[in-house]
Design brief:
The chain has 360 residues and is an alpha+beta fold. Helices cover 48% and strands 9% of the residues. The protein has ten helices and five strands; from the N terminus they run ααααββαβαββαααα. A hairpin with a 2-residue loop joins β1 and β2. α5 packs across α6.
Length: 360
């Protein structure tokens, strides 16, 4: 029987493997160099003496110390390297320098902590304004920000909602509620505050001798009394001052109601120190002026009153009569008004010019 099945022939083509590249050679070369360096270091450590090992260690710990009086190399075949104490970086630090560094670090850390404390107070006040029903109605009139002096809280007038009665320091009920509500939160930070009052540029014509300066000061003091009634510690009030219209909030609109405001600044440590230094300088100047006045008065009392020209200058004694009358009160007043710091001879000459012509 005939076999009709087809014959299938399979031909397999074999190809030689392609070239893999030479990247492995670079990696092997790096490995060989690393191993050579490793064995070289191990050999040096084995053959080096303890002194040489100590010098090598000192070189890598303080290389600058070998720039003078020794060799710039870790091992000098010509002699042992010497450390230069003037140039070394590992010398002991001066205790005074250490104290200065510690003090500066402490001040920097204190400033950072103080800034963090004021930032937290700012966030708490903002949350209180957003959540408290009383403050939420007037949040457009309460402005809070961080300044170089500390945390500043500004409460400004609105167009139809002033904080005080017109031309007076009487607080409106809503402004009292704002101060009473904020006082507890501000008192949580044990820092001193500064309270300042401001007016707009409209001159106050209520009564004679009373203007915007007096009005702004009275309003700031009224705000202080309200805070104290709310329980704010009086010892934490550092300053109460009125600025009138000298520091306008809106300089483009001098008559804007926002210029009428009360500022409460929670002072940082730097601003508080500057305030104390200014107060001390002012008190010292006042003491110096008082001492100068008392010294001048004592000096005037010590000047003898000259009654006759003969006592002033013996040369002119014959020019005056023997029974010359004592100097009048006007002459004595002129005598006391002399400059105490002039030379004594000049003072006597002036006395003769003022007294002798009249006695003649």
């Amino acid at each position: 029987m005939d076999n009709n099945q087809p014959i299938i022939v399979k031909r397999i083509t074999r190809k030689a493997a392609g070239h893999h590249g030479g990247a492995w050679k670079i990696a092997f070369a790096d490995f060989a160099v690393a191993m050579m360096a490793f064995f070289l270091v191990m050999w040096l450590v084995t053959v080096a003496t303890p002194e040489q090992l100590r010098d090598i260690s000192g070189y890598f710990n303080d290389p600058i110390g070998f720039s003078e009086g020794g060799s710039p190399y870790p091992i000098d075949l010509g002699g042992s390297p010497q450390v230069s104490p003037e140039r070394t970086l590992s010398k002991e630090q001066d205790p005074e320098d250490q104290d200065m560094v510690d003090e500066a670090s402490a001040k920097e850390l204190a400033a950072k902590l103080e800034q963090l404390e004021l930032d937290m107070l700012l966030q708490e006040l903002q949350n209180q304004i957003d959540e408290d029903p009383v403050l939420q109605r007037f949040k457009d009139q309460i402005l809070i920000e961080i300044t170089q002096d500390g945390l500043r809280i500004q409460i400004v007038d609105a167009e139809n909602r002033p904080m005080f009665a017109s031309g007076s320091a009487q607080l409106q009920p809503y402004f009292e509620e704002i101060l009473l509500t904020l006082s507890d939160t501000i008192a949580k930070v044990p820092k001193k505050i500064s309270i300042s009052g401001h007016t707009d540029a409209e001159p106050f014509r209520g009564r004679n001798g009373y203007g915007n300066w007096e009005l702004s000061s009275d309003r700031a003091n009224a705000a202080r009394r309200t805070l104290l009634v709310a329980g704010y510690p009086e010892s934490q009030v550092a300053r109460v001052v009125g600025y009138a219209d000298s520091a306008l909030f809106d300089r483009s609109e001098p008559l804007s109601p926002t210029n009428r405001r009360i500022d409460i600044i929670v002072l940082n440590h730097q601003a508080e120190e500057q305030m104390l230094e200014s107060a001390d300088a002012g008190s010292d100047e006042a003491v110096l002026e008082a001492d100068a006045s008392s010294s001048a008065g004592a000096a005037l009392e010590g000047v003898p009153e000259q009654t006759t020209p003969a006592a002033a200058d013996p040369v002119d004694a014959d020019a005056a009569p023997a029974d010359a009358a004592p100097a009048s009160s006007t002459e004595r007043q002129q005598q006391r008004s002399l400059n105490l710091f002039e030379d004594a001879a000049n003072a006597e000459s002036r006395l003769r010019q003022q007294v002798l012509p009249e006695s003649r």
